[in-house]
Amino acid sequence: MKFTSILNLMLITTMLLSCGNEKSENNNDDMASNETISFNYNLEQFADIKVLRYQIPGWEKLTLKEQKLVYYLVQAGLSGRDIMWDQNYRHNLKIRKALENVYTNYEGDKSSDSWGEFETYLKRIWFSNGIHHHYSNDKIKPEFSSDYLKQLLAATNTTFDGEAFQVIFNNQDSKKVNQAKAVDNVALSAINFYGPNVTNKDVEIFYKTKKSPNPKKPLSYGLNSQLVKENGVLKERVYKSGGLYGEAIDEIIKWLELAKGVAENDAQGDALGLLIDYYKTGDLQTWDDYNVAWTAATDGNIDYINSFIEVYNDPLGYSGSYETIVQINDFDMSQKMKVVSDNAQWFENNSPLMDAHKKKNVVGVTYKVVNVGGEAGDASPSTPIGVNLPNANWIRAEVGSKSVSLGNITHAYNNASSTGRLKEFVHDEEELKLEEEHGQLADKLHTALHEVIGHASGQLNPGVGETKETLKNYASTLEEGRADLVGLYYLYNPKLQELGLVNDWKAIGMAAYDGYIRNGLMTQLIRLNLGDNVEEAHMRNRQWVSAWAFEKGKADHVIEKVTRDGKTYFNIIDYEKLHDLFGQLLRETQRIKSEGDYAAVEALVEGYGVKVDQEIHAEVLDRNKQFNSAPYSGFVNPVLVAEKDKEGEITSVKVTQPETFSSQMLNYSMHYSFLPEVN
User: Fold this and answer.
1) Is the Cβ–Cβ distance between 315 and 185 less than 8 Å?
2) pLDDT for 170 beyond 50
C-alpha cells in the first residue's frame, strides 16, 4: 500500500503503497524548511502541476556491485512504463505517440496561445500517464480546438484519427475510475482492466467462481489480468511473457536477470528469481511464493518493488497497476525509526480494537527509511511517500510486511515549498507555531505509524472474505482511513516520548491533529473543481475521518467551526476528546473490516466522505487564488548513466539530472517503448 501524503506537507495526508495507493498529491506549501539549499528542487510548473527533482544521497558510498544492482532494477522498471499507460486507458499509447510526434517535428509558430495550450496538454498527460487526471480521475480537457490539432497533424505528417482522436474532445470515457454509488462502476470507468462490455455483475460472477487451493491463503485472482468478453464469454488476458504486455515484460525479465546476477545475498537473489518466474508464467501461486520470499529478504542495502501491485485504479479492487520503486537504505534514519516496528505488538495490544479483532502475534513488520533510486509506472511522476507491502492479508499475518518511507522524496517536498498557504488556513498563531516547530516530525511519525502499525494491525473474523469481496468499491478508502486512524490514535500518546521518538509528545500530537482536521475539512478541497464530489480513495478517507470526528464531537465542543473576517477556520478545543473519538472510529472501522460489513462502510463513506460543503469549497478556492504554487507535485527521476570499458563491462554508474520534464518524457518514449499502440 502506498502512503502518499505528508500530513500537512502536502495538503493531503496519507497514502501507503501496499497500504493503498495514494500518490504524491502533495502540495508542500504547507511546510517550509530553514535549510539552505544549493540544489534546486523545483524544475517547472504548468496547469495544476509542479514538477520537482530529487537527489540520491549516499550514492557514492555504494559499492560498484550495489550501483549495478540499482541500475539494473531501474532499467527493469522503466521497461514496463508503457504498461501503465495502456492500463490507464486503451487509447493512451496511440494518443501519446501522435502528440509526441507533433511536439518533436512541428516547425511552425510556437509563440501562439494555441501551441502553448497544446504543450501544456501534452505535459499534463505525461504527468498522469494518460489523458485522465492522475488524482481526480477526470478526463483532462484540452484548451486548444480539434481544428488546431488537425493543423498540427497535417503539418507533421502525423496519422491520427478515429475514436482515439475524437475522445480527446468529446465526453466519452470521462472518468478513469468511477467510484460513485449505485452505478455500474466497471462499465462507467475508462480504466483498461476490463473490456468495453464488461459490467460489475460480470466481474463479481467471474471471480466468485475462482476457488483458491488453500482457502486460508487466498490467491489474488484478477491481480495480473484484463477481463474481457469475447462472443459473450468472459476470459482473462494474463499479463505475462507471451501474453498481454509480453513485449514489455520480456524486457523487464532481461533486466531482472541481470539484477539477480549481482544480488547482495542468496535471499534477495532467490526472490528475484521467483519474480522472474512469475513474469514468465503469470502464475498467482508463484506471485505469493515471491511475496513470501521478498518479505523475508530483509538484509542488504538495496530493495525494490516491481510488478502489478496496487488495486486502487480498479473500481472493484481486483487488478493491479504496474509500478516500480528502487530503494537504497538510509541507515541513520532507519535505525531511528526501527523502534516503531520493534514495538508493533505493544501498539496492537493497547489499541482500542475489540479483543477479537486484535492480532495475538504481530510478526515481521520491518520499517526502513530509504532513498529512491528510480521510479516508474504508477509511482511516477506522481509518487507515494511511503510503502507497505505485501498486500495479501494472510502473508502479512503469517510472514509479516515491509514498510518504508521514501526519505529523499519527503526531503525534496519539504525543501521545495513555502509557508504561504499554511498561514492562510491556520486558525491562529499557536496553530502556526505548532506546525512550524513540530509538523515535519509529526508527518514522519504519522507515515511510520500508518504503514508499520496501521496496515499490520487487526485481523479478519474467521470465514470473512477478503475486503475487495466484502467491502467492494469502499475497500480501499476504508483501509486507508483505518491505517490513518491508527496513526492518529498513537500520535497523541506519551508512549512516543517513552520510546525516545519525540521530546514533547503532546505538542507533536496537537500539531498532527491540527493538520489532519485542517486538511480533511478544508485545504484538500483545492484539488477539486467546485461542485465535484470526492472520488479519490485517500481524499475520501481524510474527509470521512475528519467530518465524522467533527460531527460526533459537536455536543462536547471538541472542534469548533470559526468564522472570522469572512473566513472559515476549524479550531480543536479538546485534543483529549478528539483522541478518544479517533479511538472510537478506529474500533468501528476495524469492526467493519473484520466482519465485512458492507452496509456500515457504505453509510460511513457516503455519509461523510463523498459530498462536499459547497460554501466552504467555494471559499477555499477563492482564498487559494492568491498562491501561485500548483496543488499537485511530482518528480522527474535522476538519470543513471552506466560507463563501460572496451569489453562492455560497467565500470561506474553516474547520477545526472534531466534538464527538463519534456526531455525526460521524450527520452523515455524513445528508449522504453516496447508495446504496440493497441494491445
Assistant:
1) yes
2) yes
* Tens-digit pLDDT profile for residues 598-614: 999 999 999 999 999 99
User: Smallest Cα–Cα separation from 505: which of 514, 515, 496, 516?
Assistant: 496
Backbone φ and ψ of 568, nearest 5°: -100, 140
Task: Report whether 304 contacts 326 (CB < 8 A).
Answer: yes
Element (H, E) at 614: helix 614-624
What is d(CA 679, CA 672) in angstroms, rounded to the nearest whole number?
A: 16
The CA–CA distances, whole Å, from 385 to 18, 67, 328 equal: 12, 23, 14
More confident residue, 419 or 268: 268
| Higher-pLDDT residue of 630, 7 | 630
Q: Rounded to an integer, what distance in angstroms lies between the CA atom of residue 10 and that of residue 409? A: 12
* Whole-angstrom distance, CA of residue 409 vs CA of residue 56: 9
How far apart are the C-alpha atoms of 642 and 258, rounded to whole Å?
Answer: 14
Residue 616 φ/ψ, nearest 5 degrees: -65, -40
Please return the burial class of 653, using the count of CB atoms within 10 Å of its CB with bins 0-12, 13-18 and 19+.
Answer: buried
Cell 525543501 belongs to residue: 415
Segment 216-236 mean pLDDT: 96
The secondary element (H helix, E strand) that includes residue 278 is helix 266-281
* CA distance linking residue 14 with residue 443, whole number of Å: 9
Name residue 305's beta-bridge partners: 325
Give the pLDDT of residue 150.
Answer: 98
Q: For residue 3, what pLDDT band results from cuts at 50, 70 and 90?
A: low
